[in-house]
Amino acid sequence: MERRDFIRGAAALALPLSLNGYTAKALGLSPMMESLGEISTATDRILVIVQLSGGNDGINTVIPLDQYSTYMALRANIAIPQDKVLKLNAATGLHPAMTGMKSLYDSGRLVVVQGVTYPSPNQSHFRGTDIWMSGSGFNQYVNTGWAARYLDSQFPNYPVGYPNASMPDPLAIQISAVPSLLLRETQGPLGINLSNPDDFYNLVSGIKAGNTDPLPNNAAGKQIAYIRQIQEQSQQYAKGIKAAADKAKNMATYPARGQNTLADQLAIVARLIAGGLKTRVYVVSMGGFDTHANQVNAADKTQGAHATLLGRLSDAITVFQNDLKLLNVDKRVLGMTFSEFGRRVASNGASGTDHGTAAPQFVFGSLVQPGIIGANSSLTDLTSGNLKMVNDFRDVYGSILKQWFQVNTKEYSNVFSRDMISLPIIQGSATTDVATPSAPSVTGLDVSVRNYPNPCSTATTIEYNLPNAGNVSLRVFDMEGRQVAATQEQFQSAGTYNIPISVENFTDGAYVYRLQTERGVLSGKMLVAR
Amino acid sequence: MALIDTYSTPLDAKAAEHLLRRTMFGATRKDIAQLTGQTAVAAVQTLLADQPEPDAPIDPLTGQQWVTAAYDGTVEGQRYQSLRGWWVGQMVTQPISIREKMVLFWQNHFVSTRSTVGDTRYMYKQNVLLRQYALGNVKAFTKDITTDPAMLRYLNGNSNRVGAAQENYGRELQELFTIGKGAEIAPGNYTTYTEDDVRTAARVLTGWTDTAATITSTFTPNRHDTTDKIFSAAYSGTVIKGRTGADGVKELDDLLDMIFKQPDTAKNLCREFYRWFINYDITPDIEQNFIVPLADVLRSNNYEMKPVLTKMLTSQHFFDQNLRGCIIKTPLDLVVGTMRQLQVAPPDYKTQPSQYLYAMESLRNTAGQLQQDIMEQPNVAGWAAYYQEPSYYQMWINTATLPNRVSFANTVLNGINVNVGGMNYKTFVFDSVEYAKLFTNPEDPVKLIENFCEHFFAVDLIQAQKDRLLTDVLLPGLPSFEWTVEWNDYIKNSTNANKKSLIKIKLDNLIRYMIGLAEFQVY
Q1: Rounded CA gap, B204 and B141, in Å?
Q2: What is the ipTM of this complex?
Q3: Is B215 left (phi over 0), alpha (psi -120 to 50) or beta?
Q4: Distance from the Cα of residue A35 to its chain's centroid
Q5: pLDDT tens-digit map of B166-200
Q6: Using a CB-CB distance cutoff of 8 angstroms, which residues of chain B are in contact with residue A230?
Q7: Residue B522 contacts A where some CB pair is shorter than 8 Å
Q8: Which terminus of chain B has a lower count of CB atoms within 10 Å, N or C?
Q9: What is the rounded CA–CA span in Å between residue B382 and residue B360?
């Protein structure tokens, strides 16, 4: 079975949307959904993905001031003093090293997405990273990257027929010698890797490309074909990359080279964008976030290893954002951070933190809808000492695809075979949820969900049945994508469940509820009317 | 004919070279000649023979050993150069032996990195341990590495104490070092162990610290969790009785007894050996008919390495023609292997130790830029080429690394410049003319290319490719007899530098081109 088939097959199984006419009608075939197909894809917009390797301690990055005494009690040996936190609002603040990102927030160029993870989060670095990069569920094994699948939807058949007049440049560029799953598709990498545009050009000029000799008829043939393909790509794109890099100069002042690796990488990205490269996705990264020990200095907890990392992250993103503005390309660029997991709520005895689950993601750019999406994760309502999910990472990705790249539902379904709650990330975007309209019908699965009464005024009951035991959570969102009610994710045996939901505090209007099961998500729409 | 059956045909030159390439770094003409005609069993016996341990490295500036001296931040950098140069030197100057490939395997299996450990003396001490057990007993090895001072620092075992368990080592011991992670059959349940087992194992391992002054590890009973440790159904609910006082250390034996009793531990290790020596692709057939019987050998020999390596490396499957050339060269295979294959002589360690260490360090640096830096793996799982599905070995190759791999040909042809005490020296000087003389009939360009191809590539080139090497690369625009004329003219005037240079330029072009071919990147 081809890997592409695998993800589609797996996802189709995970999506019993079309099983139940009710949910399909509610979301999949609504006029709103249809109209998405009319919007043309934005072709001059760029996404910069910033990977924070190691599992960033989200709780010391975005600090829950509204639960400060609990925070202090659970991690006294690493707690940031309350008066040092850079307040975003009464409930939430940033680590004191993040002055740059605080100023981005104040100037409306930063979004904080709270408590991002997925159901049943994995605490292995490798598996966690794969999940975040592939955009899969905890129990799906997917060998392609979500960004690659997006690019594949825009540039079918790549690399056959590329470069061409409409896309003369690499689809994606990663500033690293280590290729990422993010950019890998079934047919191979959809992006190219480089450490430095000048060296890249000089080095590839020695490469022999265009080799069409027959391949050895054994297992070696596959590897040789792959190497030839990489030779070919290096050759094809080297000139354009060099020309773009030569054309533009950074206008903001970055840290001295070698002082901040992320800033070094982003400086190259800014040059390539301003130099006119049509590349759609850039990937940069910094490591060191696996802070099991000594993440703060005992004498001054605002200093130490984690403070240094966050200071670099903040400085790099800030100078990059300012550079883009000076280069007058800032409105075309959106940035997003991610890390494979957050860290345990309670600190360990070594002034560090062990692997955890949910953590905030940052989205930055001149066109973001600034603000904080979701409340702080609860520090007391935990699963095995770990935070519960507030937002699903695939909803962050999906919202970016829809609002930033303006993909239509068909293109969306090339990336995720999973319906989506829209989060308000980009200014002026309609935050409509996306359901994959064409999930093949699956027989033999009989998960279903409905609510009664509907419409409702004071309370409603959401009823669902599970054919198999598994982890389940139920969340209710308003049409802006804000979560308004949720049940704890929990393991439930097979059977029928009735969950009463009080809607007394809801304003009148439509709401979407989502039942996350191990087979995927079921959604329904309900109306509050008084 | 089962995959695991012994390959009984005497080794021809190609089979001998295949065995040498896979178990060492590159193959020299002499080593190929020595193994040709032997049986696989005899050849592997030679490769597995015990070797004397090398002397400890010296500081290239002072000429003194430093491995037991006090930590000194002012010389730490040159000590690290010394250690890395020394280690790469063991690879470059290896006798016929599998040892260096195994030492590297274990350093990538039980990863610790210098940048996290922060003290080169610790890394040397760990390297000695890797060498001690390279072909020894995996279970005893796992016990010793668990309390190795560098490992205690790298995975924070030194801060793991009762009441504040630090689960980093307890996790990697199971996920990466022994039993491996199976399918996640329920949240936190990885078939072979569970998240709770990670926490429980961490409690077993409480109590250890390291001491920098002596580079040793110490078990402190009052840091140890003395309660009973109850493992999940994955380990049949095994209970490790809590032990008090100095006896607390024995819980580690109990833990390893429990883990190594599981058939999955042997299978997981055998899959790693397979991906290191044979191929990445473990099909259901390979799993059932190769991995499982190998794992049986490993377990029934109480986790001794020599029987399982012998079984694997003398198997029909190991010598299968379909798998020749299916591994993409690691950066060290490329860098060290090419130097060895071309028989480029390094500086003499006894008389020129500084030049030697700096030249080796330069090779280390090249491999590091190609993303294989010894003692600096990107994370505890080691190099992604051995675990990242579905790419595996392809992880080494991308548009950033491939151009550097190809330009390594220039390093080979130009030699490596090192600076010692303000003076520049050229080391690793390669003479392509002398190299050509190692083959029969170098005056015949067709034979020369035929012989070069057989030695340079693990796969057969098609005739059209060989023809191009002759007409487009070695002798562009010239009839082939001109080579014979020029070569014979040089031989008659072998002290004439100009005549030699004419030949050398052509041979250098040929070798540069061959190293640039995709076929050179596999073995």
Answers
A1: 18
A2: 0.88
A3: left
A4: 25
A5: 899 999 999 999 999 999 888 889 999 999 999 99
A6: 397-399, 402
A7: yes
A8: N
A9: 22
Q: Is B356 helix (H, G, I), strand (E, B) or coil?
A: helix
Distance CA A147, CA A180 (A): 10
Angle between helix axes B445-456 and B497-516 (nearest 10 degrees) is: 40
The SS3 of residue B496 is coil
Q: Is it true that the peptide bond before A163 is cis, omega within 30 degrees of 0?
A: yes
Least Cα distance to A180 among A135, A148, A228 occurs for A148
A201 within 8 A of A238, measured Cβ to Cβ = yes
Q: How far apart (Å, rounded) are the C-alpha atoms in residues A507 and A457? A: 10
Distance from CA of A110 to the nearest CA of B (A): 30
Q: How far does the CA of residue B279 sit from the closest CA of chain A (Å)? A: 9
Pairwise CB contact (< 8 Å): B519 & A219: no
CB interface of B with A, residues 498-517, below 8 Å: 513, 516-517
Residue type, position B434, single letter? E
Q: Are A424 and A369 in contact (CB under 8 A)?
A: yes
Domain covering A46-407: architecture:
3-Layer(aba) Sandwich (3.40)
**CA torsion, ordered B88, B89, B94, B100, to nearest 10 deg:** -30
CB B279 within 8 A of CB B324: no
Place of tokens 């530098």: B497
- The closest CB to that of B459, out of A53, A126, A220, belongs to A220
The domain A3-36+432-528 having CATH identifier 2.60.40.1930: the answer here is yes
Give pLDDT tens digits for A379-417: 999 998 999 999 999 999 999 999 999 998 888 888 987
Closest-CA distance, A506 to chain B, in angstroms, reads: 33
CB contact under 8 A, B369 and A177: yes
Check: CB of residue A444 under 8 Å from CB of residue A458.
no
Interface contact flag, B322 A231, Cβ < 8 Å:
no
